[in-house]
Amino acid sequence: MKAIALLVFTLLGCSTVSAQTVGAYGQCGGSGYSGSTVCISGYVCTYENAFYSQCVPGTTTLATTTTSSSSTVSSSSSTTTKSTSISSSIPKSTSTGFPSVNGLNFTIDGVTNYYVGTNAYWLPFLTDDSDVDHVLGDIASSGLKILRVWGFNDVNIIPSSGTVWFQLLEDGTATINTGADGLERLDAVVSAAEAYDVKLIIPFVNNWNDYGGMNAYVTAFGGSQTTWYNTTEIQEVYQAYIEAVVSRYSSSSAIFAWELGNEPRCNGCDTSVITDWAATTSAYIKSLDPNHMVTTGIEGFGLTAGSDGSYPYSFNEGTNFTALLSIPTIDFGTIHLYPDSWGEAETWGSSWVSTHGATCAAIGKPCILEEFGVSYNQCAIEAPWQATSLDTAGMAGDMFWQYGDTLSTGESSDDGNTIYYGTSTYSCVVTDHIEAIG
Ligand SMILES: *[C@@H]1O[C@H](CO)[C@@H](O)[C@H](O)[C@H]1NC(C)=O
Ligand SMILES: *[C@@H]1O[C@H](CO)[C@@H](O)[C@H](O)[C@H]1NC(C)=O
Ligand SMILES: *[C@@H]1O[C@H](CO)[C@@H](O)[C@H](O)[C@H]1NC(C)=O
């Protein structure tokens, strides 16, 4: 981790006024930390917990006295802001009109509410703009406000012509495809989302092998899926990819949040591996784009409070839900829900939602039921999960997995859990639910 932290410091260091100052969102204090406690001008060293203080936007009261040199002002900041609460240390973007956190809810276009959304991971891989436009139109007219699509498509070999890919990882090198069968396809989704005022969640890597995933990096650079998180060379490639995507859309009104990855897991690892990675990566994203929210994309594994002792609550998959949500550069939490895959009863789902909501409320950040699915009887099984999420303080939205529609090529991808626009199941899971919220 040390080498990775140094890399981030180097990148952040570009804007510092002297070697003594810590850049935007850099670490500036904490047990075992021996670096500078002085933030660059405009940032204040904010106490987060015993192990972590971070430079966040703002000034101390001392700064109001004069335009004195920033080093004098900020050198005293680590003591003056020690009592700053977690939630007030999160950069807020309300005034700029970007989607933001407001207490335990989200604000979109100035309206604070509980929001409903969906997943259509495949949308950036379509090659026909009119299909993309058609899907966004149907999603928007349904009242779905948040849409999650894959922001990654990693390959080890360039696929045949006409197949979309975003990044080639081959023999220790990485090539980002910004062309017509590359990130221009993601551009089309972002443009359509802007036009229809739908807000996107965009993850940068997959835990799973679909569309490459961490194993595509491992194939090109070595290591394993569990060493992916703290291997310097791999993290440099991952961050370069993040920069390529974030810089394309950092001013877009259509981004709801950047997401570190889809369902990051590190089986059998100490949870510090993923927590350290998430702190480093989220701070890096904030340094590139302070206006948009950042979240983890985790499933919610690793929770003590409210645990019933079952596997999903265990820490075996290397994530600590509480620790990850407490990272100051993580704006909100995510949970997923697949009781059938996790060996749980479907009725267990509501308790999974409410226990996490309670932790989110305790930490003071909203969470979203970002994925949930079953392959049959969706109305009867999923509606109670949605109702629980709506009724639980700390839960601020839900997004079913996954959305289906009719494209120029036929029906969109069906993984068994797909709910197609215009069907009776859609009426129940989408239309009725949104009407109930008002
Ligand atoms: C915010 O969320 C809470 C709990 O989820 C809800 O009761 C409340 O009505 C929401 N506030 C607004 C302004 O939407
Ligand atoms: C990197 O992660 C692995 C688990 O994948 C862990 O065993 C190792 O201790 C970590 N290294 C550092 C320096 O944190
Ligand atoms: C999870 O993280 C929280 C907050 O940092 C910590 O208090 C707790 O001990 C951690 N749990 C485990 C099992 O690591």
Terminal Cα span: 47 Å
Rounded to an integer in angstroms, the radius of gyration calculated over CA atoms is 21 Å
Mind telling me the CATH class of the largest domain? Alpha Beta
Please, how many helices? 13
Distinct ligands: 2-acetamido-2-deoxy-beta-D-glucopyranose
Estimate what percentage of residues fall within beta strands: 15-25%
Number of DSSP strand runs: 23
> What is the architecture of the largest domain at the second tier of CATH?
Alpha-Beta Barrel
Number of domains: 2
Cα shape = globular
Overall pLDDT metric: 87
Subcellular location: Secreted
Keywords: Carbohydrate metabolism, Glycosidase, Hydrolase, Secreted, Signal
GO molecular function: cellulose binding; mannan endo-1,4-beta-mannosidase activity
EC number: 3.2.1.78
Explain this structure to me?
- 33% of the residues lie in helices and 20% in strands.
- It has 438 residues and is α/β, with parallel strands linked by helices.
- It has 2 domains: 26-57, no CATH class; 100-437, TIM Barrel (Alpha-Beta Barrel), CATH 3.20.20.80.
- It has an 8-stranded parallel sheet.
- Helix 4 links the parallel strand 9 and strand 10.
- Helix 4 (129-141) runs parallel beside helix 5 and helix 12 runs parallel beside helix 13.
- The longest helix is centred in the middle third of the chain and has 18 residues, at 232-249.
- The model is unreliable at 1-18 and 61-96 (pLDDT under 50).
